[in-house]
Design goal:
The complex is a heterodimer. In chain A, about 55% of the residues lie in helices and about 20% in strands. Chain A is built from 14 helices and 13 strands. In chain A, the strands form 3 sheets. In chain A, strands 4-6-5-11-10 form a 5-stranded mixed barrel. Chain A has a 4-stranded antiparallel sheet with strand order 2-3-1-13. The longest helix of chain A has about 35 residues. Chain A starts with a helix and ends in a 20-residue tail after the last helix. Chain B is of the alpha+beta class. Chain B has 2 domains: about 220 residues, Multidrug efflux transporter AcrB transmembrane domain (Multidrug efflux transporter AcrB transmembrane fold, Up-down Bundle); about 80 residues, Alpha-Beta Plaits, CATH 3.30.70. In chain B, the strands form 2 sheets. In chain B, strands 3-4-2-5 form a 4-stranded antiparallel sheet. Chain B has a two-stranded parallel ribbon with strand order 1-6. In chain B, helix 6 runs parallel beside helix 8 and helix 7 packs antiparallel against helix 10. Chain B is elongated and about 85 Å long. The chains are: A alpha+beta, B alpha+beta. At the A-B interface, strand 13, helix 10, helix 12, helix 13 and helix 14 of A face helix 5, strand 5, helix 6, helix 8 and helix 9 of B. Strand 13 of chain A pairs antiparallel with strand 5 of chain B.
Chain lengths: ~475, ~350
């Protein structure tokens, strides 16, 4: 039964092509732990994490893992290529800027892309000849778009809107988010966002309004055009209203963006770790080899000591291993949870716990047999007592794993997770697999010859 | 009390664990004291995760010396940096120190890469802010306190408070010894070692629970008909679980030794090494303390209960020479009565 489930889950996982996601220490990459410099509200914190996630997506990391752990954000970017750039980008306090719109383009239309490229390069001071040459070759979207960390205030940039369906070519920034005092979403027949500026901002905004009267100005955050309202007045006196076809969520989100700027939270870098791919691979290889050698030694010992029962123990380990592999692959695939170094060592250590369940049971059987009980009935009868011991002992491990998982972060937390998982697997495998197989072995193969179980006690010798 | 592997293997040992417990406990107390003294005198060698600072690791080739790396480090203002060449598998240079002002983790990394004559992509780096370490340590402490309280409650509910106390003292003993060894040898403490300490606690508790479970079981099956003292009961139980303890310790230690030898010495993965050393020490100490610290303590507490004092007294009246053997026999007989109707002796193979 368990055999079926374990087999089925393993085949399922393998055929789906899922493999465990490896952590930064095992395949190289970047790990950053950030903490807000000041007290922040939950709302701000969540928003900040959202922004970090967008930035990471923009770099194009295959399996990023970004989690909030208490008052810290842990960002793991396994396998990321340009490590330093990734580190810089994540915690950067990018600014909110107001940029006049020069022109629009459709990201799917090659002709428009080429035209937009010309505008961007032209304003950047590139000589006309070069521009002509480039327009002849096709311009891809990634060539055109300004990279996430190239959003310089003084440059002309090409960016996409938040839905990704409209492209904008934007002039240098004329205003930054610092001058905004307050931004609130209100409902007045439709959803609008009320903006108020400080004195300096009021002046600058009016200046921009005069220059761009009846034209659109883009509100840019982190390389994304959040909104591009049309200026329809030249004098605002420090108060502006952005209206459009917003729904409630859009309006509130825009207000939030305007209020908090780019990262609503200033982060301190608590821990920054970059691991080169070679070092990561070395650690992984060492861990795998050490694990296999350890397993082989344990298997050998169990075989020598418990003979046939040792074989059962090896099978139990194999079943647990298959189940664990499936779970790790599933966690990696569905939750983006990576197998960390701490987790991997936890698993190697759990071999001991798994084998112990077998040993507790076998020792009970041996004891009963020494008292003169038949192997068969001993195998049946000892399980209850042995399993109760296993449960109580495993429960202590689970309590430990639970406490650690709840109260710690980072390395220790990863370890606690895998400790908990392997303990649960141990319980299930002991009950559903080890017991029936031992009973079967006792009935069919031992034939009342305890020596096959590593019992060299004959009935005459047994003390009564 | 004769030592015989053969008897141990067959499981019919009758060693007087509690008889030697006084001497053993004295040894343990002295060891713990030494460790505590070492902890206060020498302190712990804390990793950068707790102290802040930076660590850079670069592959080391034959023709670059540690001195060349040290020179480069001094040039960029890291003259206090600790520079090691770690051998085993592929050699690496490990540089640990404070990040100099005006430098970034990357600029230091590329300077070191140049000195080591490797591509800067091959350099691994880690920088940690000092406040982070306080936080990690604080969290671990809090988790530890909650863990102890929960386990104490759990053991009190499952067994009784005396056993909970015994188990926790044993765990504290294990942690003290392991941390003490870290202080004495100045091994570096990292989050991985903290994880290892926590694992040790788990193992030690697990071991102790297996012993207690057996004692409880025997206590029930004994009923009042035998004249067993609590010490006898404890001794019998310990003899019953000794083989399991030995085997479990061996099978737990084998993967750890493999991790230590294969993982770190042959392949040169330092991160595995830190973890394995703590585990190895802790595993050995943990199985020892379950048998020789936890149980004797519980036994000493239990003997004060009226019922067991009574048993002690009556045991004194009788000849006590063979009390353990008697107890074992009584227990075995009791087991046998309950287990099955008497069955004919089976024919064992003669040898």
């Amino acid at each position: 039964m368990v055999l079926l489930i374990a087999g089925a889950s393993l085949t399922g996982v393998l055929s789906a092509g899922w493999t465990p996601v490896l952590g930064v220490q095992l395949q190289g990459g970047v790990e950053v732990v950030l903490r807000p410099a000041d007290e922040v509200s939950d709302e701000q914190f969540e928003r900040a994490i959202e922004i970090i996630r967008n930035r990471v997506d923009a770099i194009g990391v295959a399996e990023p893992d970004i989690t909030r752990q208490g008052d810290q954000v842990v960002i793991q970017l396994p396998g990321v290529k340009d490590k330093q750039r990734a580190v810089d980008l994540i915690g950067k306090t990018a600014e909110l800027t107001f940029r006049p719109v020069i022109t629009f383009f459709d990201p799917l239309d090659p002709n428009q892309l080429a035209a937009a490229k010309q505008v961007v390069d032209g304003s950047g001071g590139v000589e006309a000849e070069n521009v002509d040459e480039e327009t002849e070759s096709s311009v891809s979207l990634s060539d055109l778009l300004t990279p996430p960390d190239g959003d310089e205030a003084a440059a002309t940039v090409a960016l996409l809107g938040s839905t990704g369906q409209t492209g904008f070519v934007l002039a240098p920034a004329q205003l930054t988010g610092e001058v905004i005092e307050e931004a609130v979403a209100t409902f007045q027949g439709q959803w609008i966002v009320n903006l108020s500026f400080n004195d300096e901002g009021a002046l600058l905004f009016d200046q921009m309004a005069v220059e761009n009267y009846e034209r659109q100005v883009a509100i840019v955050l982190d390389g994304v055009v959040e909104s591009a309202p049309t200026i329809n007045a030249t004098e605002f006196n420090g108060q502006a209203v952005i209206s459009g076809s917003f729904d409630e969520a859009e309006a509130k989100n825009l207000a939030l963006v305007l209020r908090f700027g780019a990262l609503p939270v200033e982060f301190e870098r608590d821990d920054v770790r970059t691991v080169s791919a070679t070092l990561g691979e070395g650690t992984l290889r060492a861990g795998v080899i050490a694990g296999l050698v350890g397993l082989a030694l344990v298997g050998l010992y169990m075989l020598l000591y418990y003979r046939l029962l040792g074989l059962v123990a090896i099978c139990s380990l194999a079943i647990s291993g298959a189940t664990l592999w499936s779970i790790i692959a599933w966690l990696g695939e569905s939750k983006g949870l990576a197998l960390t170094l701490a987790g991997a060592t936890g698993i190697i250590v759990s071999i001991g716990v798994q084998v112990d369940s077998n040993i507790v049971y076998y020792e009970r059987i041996k004891e009963e047999v020494r008292r003169g009980r038949a192997v068969r009935s001993a195998a049946d009868g000892s399980f209850r007592a042995a399993f109760s011991t296993i449960i109580w002992a495993d429960l202590a491990s689970l309590i430990g794993a639970g406490v650690l998982y709840q109260l710690t972060s980072g390395t220790v937390r990863g370890f606690a997770l895998y400790l908990g998982i392997t303990t649960l697997i141990d319980l299930a495998v002991s009950f559903f697999f080890m017991r029936p197989l031992v009973v079967l072995v006792a009935r069919r193969l031992v034939n009342e010859r305890p020596s096959r179980l590593g019992l060299n006690v004959t009935a005459e010798e047994a003390p009564v | 009390m004769s030592f015989s592997i053969r008897r141990l293997y067959r499981g019919d040992t009758s060693w007087d664990f509690l008889g030697v417990s006084r001497r053993v406990l004295t040894g343990s107390i002295i060891a713990v004291l030494i460790c505590v003294v070492a902890l206060f005198v020498q302190g712990l060698n804390l990793g950068i995760e707790f102290e802040g600072g930076g660590v850079w690791e670069a592959p080391a080739s034959e023709d670059v010396t540690t001195d060349a790396i040290r020179e480069t480090a001094s040039d960029i203002g890291m003259s206090d940096a600790r520079i090691q060449r770690i051998t085993g598998g592929d050699d690496i240079f490990r540089v640990r120190g404070e990040l100099p002002t005006g430098e970034t983790a990357e600029s230091v990394g590329s300077a070191l890469a140049q000195a080591a004559q490797v591509d800067s992509e091959l350099v691994s780096a880690r920088t940690v802010s000092p406040s982070f370490g306080d936080e990690v340590a604080g969290k671990a402490r809090r988790a530890l306190v909650v863990f102890f309280i929960l386990i104490a409650l759990y053991l009190t509910l499952r067994f009784e408070w005396k056993m909970a106390l015994g188990a926790l003292v044993a765990v504290a003993h294990d942690i003290a010894l392991t941390v003490g060894i870290y202080a004495i040898f100045q091994f570096e403490i990292s989050p991985a070692t903290v994880v290892a300490f926590l694992t040790i606690m788990g193992y030690s508790l697990y071991d102790t629970i297996v012993v207690f479970d057996r004692v409880k079981d025997n206590e029930r099956s004994l009923s009042l008909k035998t004249r067993m003292t609590y010490s006898d009961l404890a001794n019998v139980s310990l003899n019953q679980v000794i083989m399991r303890s030995v085997n479990t310790t061996i099978t737990s230690v084998l993967p750890v030794i493999s991790l230590l030898v294969v993982g770190s010495l042959i392949m040169g993965a330092t991160s595995l090494q830190e973890f394995a050393i703590a585990l190895l020490i802790g595993l050995l100490v943990g199985s020892y303390s379950s048998l020789f610290v936890a149980m004797p303590l519980v036994s000493a507490l239990k003997r004060r209960e009226p019922h067991w004092t009574e048993q002690d007294r009556s045991a004194e009246v009788l000849s006590e020479s063979n009390s353990i053997e008697n107890a074992a026999t009584a227990l075995a007989a009791d087991r046998y009565d309950r287990s099955a109707p008497p069955r004919p002796r089976k024919k064992g193979r003669k040898r």
